[in-house]
Design a protein that fits this description.
The protein is α/β, with parallel strands linked by helices and 496 residues long. The chain contains 10 helices and 23 strands. The strands form 7 sheets. A 5-stranded parallel β-sheet has the order 20-19-21-22-23, sandwiched between helices. Strand 19, helix 4 and strand 20 form a beta-alpha-beta unit. It is elongated. The N and C termini lie far apart (133 Å).
């Protein structure tokens, strides 16, 4: 019986020892071989709480919870208007601080700290219109500020036709003492007055001087001049300081002007009835391109016009008015397609050009190839430069002389009304021409029909079959204008 009891005791101690070894392996606190085990103390969390002076309310947003023995940085004391913040105390309603705001302390146990403040009073800051008058907008800005504290100045109420400059300590000031948003120390009760500067006025007038619209513009800033829809029978050309002009505007739509004072501009409007109607005799008189000028040009064997719908409609105009076999179009070919651009040129157009260049190849006189693409894809301006330079060598081997005709003027206002691609703006077209003419310089000769049309006038029309219709689209041209573009190119080749 006694042996049985001893056996139970031995089993008990063996099991206890095994349990201790197993626990040590789990906690990592056992020490192998020695039979000694360390017991870790539990982690203690402590909290610092922050209260108003009298213990109400508690500032829960400032509460700090951490491990006992850690160092913490005490927060700023929340502001109370009319009181100066001194710091924190371990006692309620204290007049002296235990700790300063921002001080670093070791938090060993739970801690309650109370705001310590000193009553100093307030100053009043009132805001008024520039002449000293008030309104609801200004009255709402009135505020009280703890003495010697800082105030961030509010926005000045807007005033139509005026630029806000800031706040002044005196009435009717032309310069501001303080900018909106500036922090200033308030050392006394005071009044602040709005400071405004009258905006400059841009007055846009019709061609006859009647006011079209007025725009208030902050002095020293820029203003982008708008496009205006074409009146029936007329073409809006741009803006000028001189009334009554019909061509050669000082500014085009989309150009920005710097406004330093009041500006008055007049619409430049071209009367399409004044545009010359060219006859076959007029065009045949421009046949000097065949012979050249005897110095810089020996003449050309053939001309190939390459383009989009504008080139298509120029061709249709010439064919309809002068016949497909007329002398006007002798030795002149067209490689063009409606609505196309760079992709078409790469995939289809170039093969046609090469085929025609080979067919008209002459050692004595070159073939003139005139490209006029880009109005459908002006965003491809840099890619046009790359590709056109890439194909130049192949065409030159076939004795081709290369030209690039400018993308010609548009009216973006009419284009938008008709629902066409809104990217075709006057500004974008000008940039396209600048980039392409500079990029191709030395390889292609630039034919600037854009400036020619701007300085002599032109008409736009939706007609697609070589006949004008009653609809203006701001993108394509009248038959009169197409013939003038064609003649300009022929005359240009005579000299180049």
């Amino acid at each position: 019986m006694r042996d049985k009891h001893k056996r139970k005791q031995r089993i008990f101690w063996v099991l206890l020892l095994a349990a201790l070894v197993w626990y040590g392996s789990l906690t990592g606190s056992g020490r192998s071989g020695g039979g000694t085990y360390n017991v870790q103390a539990a982690t203690t969390n402590v909290v610092a709480r922050f209260w108003n002076t009298n213990g109400r309310p508690v500032y829960n947003q400032l509460r700090i919870k951490t491990t006992a023995g850690k160092r913490i940085k005490l927060p700023s004391v929340p502001s109370v208007k009319g009181y100066q913040n001194l710091g924190w105390s371990t006692r309620k309603n204290a007049t002296k601080i235990t700790y300063k705001a921002g001080q670093t302390i070791t938090l060993k146990k739970n801690l309650s700290l109370y705001a310590v403040r000193k009553k100093v009073g307030t100053y009043t800051v009132a805001f008024y219109n520039s002449n000293g008058s008030s309104s609801t907008a200004f009255a709402k800005l009135k505020t009280t500020v703890t003495k010697n504290d800082y105030l961030t100045l509010p926005s000045v109420p807007a005033k139509s036709g005026y630029e806000v400059l800031g706040w002044s300590t005196s009435k009717n000031a032309s310069r501001a003492n303080y900018a909106v948003g500036k922090k200033i120390r308030i050392k006394k009760s005071q009044r602040l007055y709005a400071v405004y500067k009258k905006n400059a006025t841009v007055t846009l007038c019709k061609n006859n001087g009647a006011v079209y619209k007025t725009i208030s513009v902050r002095s020293g800033t820029s203003y982008k001049l708008p496009s205006v829809s074409n009146a029936s029978g007329y073409t809006f050309m741009g803006w000028d300081y001189q009334p009554g002009k019909c061509v050669a505007p000082r500014y085009e739509a989309g150009e920005s002007i710097t406004v330093n004072g009041n500006v008055k501009l007049y619409a430049v409007v071209f009367n399409r009835s004044a545009e010359e109607e060219l006859s076959s005799s007029d065009l045949l008189a421009s046949s000097g391109w065949r012979m050249g000028n005897g110095s810089t040009s020996r003449g050309y064997n053939h001309i190939i016009f390459v383009g989009d719908s504008r080139t298509v409609r120029m061709q249709l105009t010439l064919q309809r008015q002068f016949g497909t076999d007329s002398n006007v179009l002798q030795d002149i070919d067209f490689v063009c397609q409606e609505g196309q651009g760079l992709s078409w040129l790469k995939e289809t157009g170039m093969n046609s050009i090469l085929s025609k260049a080979q067919a008209y190849y002459s050692v004595q006189r070159p073939t003139a190839v005139i490209f006029n693409l880009g109005v459908n894809d002006p965003g491809q301006m840099y890619n046009y430069v790359t590709y056109l330079k890439q194909i130049a060598g192949e065409l030159q081997k076939k004795n081709c002389k290369l030209f690039f005709m400018s993308v010609n003027p548009v009216n973006s206002k009419v284009i938008q009304v008709r629902g066409f691609n809104k990217l075709r703006t006057e500004e974008v077209v000008r940039k396209f021409n600048t980039v392409v003419s500079a990029g191709l310089n030395g390889t292609y000769t630039y034919i600037d029909t854009y400036s020619y049309l701007l300085n002599t006038g032109f008409g736009t029309n939706r007609g697609a079959g070589g006949v004008d219709v009653t609809v203006d689209d701001g993108l394509h041209y009248t038959t009169k204008t197409y013939k003038r573009i064609f003649k300009y190119c022929l005359d240009y080749l005579s000299e180049h």
